[in-house]
Amino acid sequence: MRNLWVDTRAVAAVEFAIVVPFMLLLYVGGVELGNAMAIGVKVSETAHTVADLVSRNACVTDSSLSTMLGASAATIAPYTSSPYSSTSLTVIVSEVSTDAKGNATVTWSKALNGTPLSGSVTLPASLGTPSPANVSLILGQVTYQYTPNLGYTISGTIPISESYYLYPRVSSTVQYPCS
Fold first, then answer.
1. Which strands make up the sheet holding 120-121, listed edge to edge?
2. Which of 166, 177, 178, 158 is nearest to 56 (CA)?
3. Mean pLDDT in each 10-residue stretch from start to end of the chain (179 residues)?
4. I need a labelling partner for 19 at 20 to 30 A (CA). Which of 57, 113, 133, 152 fits?
5. Which pTM was predicted?
6. Start-end of H helices in the chain
7. Which residues have CB under 8 Å from 128's CB, separation 6+?
8. Backbone dihedral region of 98: left (phi > 0), alpha (psi from -120 to 50 degrees) or beta?
């Protein structure tokens, strides 16, 4: 029994067998977390891009909005193969206007791979409480359905989304459609 207790010939193999699963889990988790964080940055950039492109116009048409939505969806590359055929990416641009009491409603909205907004909207507290009265804002919203490469069975698809508000730059509102 004493010889068995002091025998150290396979200690390294046993330690390796104990440590490898934890190290692999740590490595795979780090890779997936890094991918998700990179996509989060791209989603934020895309929401800013679509709001910025629209806010630079006094009026927009269906054609110009489609072009802007397509261009903004290209900013998330390489995470989608084609911005026009991907169902994992939803881009929505809207104009939100407030009344004299600060109640916000959607004036117009256009979407890429999704449903345009309609009805009333709750503005974030960072814009002021109560909401500013008689203003128009351009709202860019992006949602990306992230599917982890290796951890899909554990977490499933994870929605990563961002909203971005900008004031129109050229006029007090962005007219849609142009008249």
1. 120-121, 104-112, 89-98, 136-146, 158-166
2. 166
3. 70 86 90 90 94 93 91 80 60 92 91 91 83 89 86 78 92 86
4. 152
5. 0.80
6. 2-6, 11-55, 62-74, 152-155
7. none
8. beta
Contact in structure between 30 and 143 (CB atoms under 8 Å): no
Beta-bridge partner residues of 94: 109, 139
For residue 13, what pLDDT is reported? 80
Q: Phi and psi of 86, rounded to 5°?
A: -80, 130
The closest of 145, 160, 142 to 74, measured between CA atoms, is 142
Cβ proximity of 149 and 36 under 8 Å: no
Measured CA distances, 139 to 11, 28, 33, 151 (Å)? 61, 36, 28, 33
pLDDT of residue 151: 65
The tokens of 134 are what?
Answer: 């008689």
Q: Would you list the domain boundaries of the chain?
A: 2-166
The number of beta carbons lying within 10 Å of the beta carbon of residue 101 is 9
Burial of 166 (0-12, 13-18, 19+ CB in 10 A): middle
The CA dihedral of 24, 25, 30, 33, to the nearest 10 degrees, is 140
